[in-house]
Specification:
Elements: H1 52-57, H2 64-75, H3 83-90, H4 97-101, H5 107-120, H6 127-139, E1 163-166, H7 168-174, H8 176-188, E2 193-194, H9 205-210, H10 213-229, E3 234-237, H11 240-250, E4 262-265, H12 266-275, E5 287-291, H13 305-313, E6 317-319, H14 338-342, H15 344-359, E7 364-367, H16 370-383, E8 388-391, H17 392-399
Parallel strand pairs: 1-2, 1-3, 3-4, 5-6, 5-7, 7-8
Length: 404
């Protein structure tokens, strides 16, 4: 078996056609890790609905198992990469639930490898993804904005320091209130936080997700060098996608390797500061909330407990879990921003299902990813689903009564 996260189809040659075709990754029950006569342990009991593109398209080629079969046929020169193959591999949300179900074969990495194959062959990827790649190259952000907003200007943050806040594209350009809340919390806890300002560029996650590994590696090396020159010992990230990209993808020896600084998500930081007694709440919120685990923070980052520890500490909050939560949390549909851009209708329907699941147990949905927040908010508005959607950092700032 190849080292994970090398994303090259050649690395899969010895095992890509070894799928057992059990269907656990998208339809039937879980893989039993011992034999078929005993019930599986709880941690293997994945929900019935687990793969958003399969649930939406209803065809097996949009499932992890179907993609494994396609990849095997293509690798063995028995099938050509055509438009439908490209649709199949780019409809994956990269939620990684299939990886937690199918531990031996990790289907998501076949998807990433095939996307790289598609790009390296010069084939056409979905047009909106190509546009995002062009935006990153020309403007350093996924939106193609030429002017860097002064989101954190009022804080007069230094551009060098040991603790650097990395805001990311969504918090910088679309959800600045999440970046503001995060910095307020850190400063109130006595953290000497710095920010790269207009020197901060896109983390490159969309390049990796699209399959452009050459440009992704270039972006990763440049970002790490900027942070290193700024004196970073710890990089605090509010974006779940940026967090996973730095912590999981930059550290790939084929990309950057060992990083010269620690990478920590804002929820991990807040939970740690709470335990140290450096954060105190003064406002009773008196709300019933549910928490949506972002795929890139939960399954791909292993951060499940900290957000719930924070919610448990907020006065007046009652947490009620949805049916699918934690390890088996359902995707919001944004799909690492790939499906949001390439398959917006699928992304909307997936978000709608998640919102209705949340609305059944609570009046407020809390999450800790600017992309999830923006996508869920927009879907709630367009679909008329009456539920408040709040970023965890913003909720914490409210409970701390931090001034605007």
């Amino acid at each position: 078996m190849p080292e994970f996260r090398t994303w090259n189809l050649d690395q899969f040659k010895d095992w890509i056609d070894m799928c057992l075709h059990c269907g656990a990754c998208y339809a039937r029950g879980p893989i039993v890790p011992h034999n078929w006569r005993e019930l599986p342990p709880h941690e293997y009991a994945a929900p019935h609905k687990k793969c958003p593109p399969f649930e939406y398209f209803k065809f097996k080629n949009h499932s992890p198992q179907g993609r494994q079969i396609l990849a095997s046929l293509i690798f063995n020169n028995r099938y050509e990469i055509d438009e439908e193959v490209i649709r199949s591999f780019y409809s994956c949300t990269s939620c990684a639930m299939c990886n937690d179900i199918c531990i031996p074969y990790q289907p998501l990495y076949t998807v990433l490898a095939m996307r790289q194959e598609i790009v390296e062959k010069g084939l056409e990827i979905p047009s909106r993804l190509k546009k995002i790649t062009d935006n990153i190259q020309s403007s350093g952000n996924i939106f193609g904005r030429k002017k860097h907003p002064k989101t954190l200007e009022n804080f007069s943050l230094p551009e060098t320091g040991e603790d650097i806040f990395y805001s990311g594209c969504y918090a910088t350009y679309l959800q600045p209130e999440t970046a503001l809340a995060s910095v307020k919390i850190l400063k109130s806890a006595g953290i000497d936080i710095a920010h790269l300002g207009d020197k901060e560029g896109c983390c490159g996650e969309m390049l990796k997700q699209s399959g452009n590994m050459k440009l992704f590696k270039k972006t990763a090396v440049e970002n790490v060098e900027k942070l290193k020159q700024a004196g970073a010992k710890r990089v605090i990230i509010s974006c779940a996608h940026g967090y996973s990209t730095f912590k999981n993808d930059y550290t790939n020896p084929h990309v950057v390797g060992v990083l010269p600084f620690e990478v920590i998500h804002i929820t991990e930081m807040i939970a740690s500061l709470l335990k140290q007694g450096r954060i105190r709440f003064s406002k009773n919120l008196n709300q019933t909330v549910t928490y949506h685990d972002p795929c890139f923070l939960g399954r791909q980052g292993g951060v499940y407990a900290q957000p719930r520890e924070i919610l448990a500490a907020v006065p007046g909050l009652t947490l009620k879990e949805m049916g699918r939560y934690g390890k088996w949390s359902y995707c919001c549909g944004a799909g690492g921003k790939v499906t949001l851009n390439a398959f917006p209708e699928m992304a909307k329907e997936t978000a709608k299902e998640r919102l209705l699941e949340a609305r059944a147990v609570a009046d407020t949905l809390v999450t800790s990813c600017p992309t999830c927040l923006a996508h869920l908010k927009k879907t709630a508005e367009t679909e008329g689903i009456d539920i408040e959607i709040v970023d965890l950092s913003m909720l914490v700032a409210t409970a701390m009564e931090l001034s605007d």
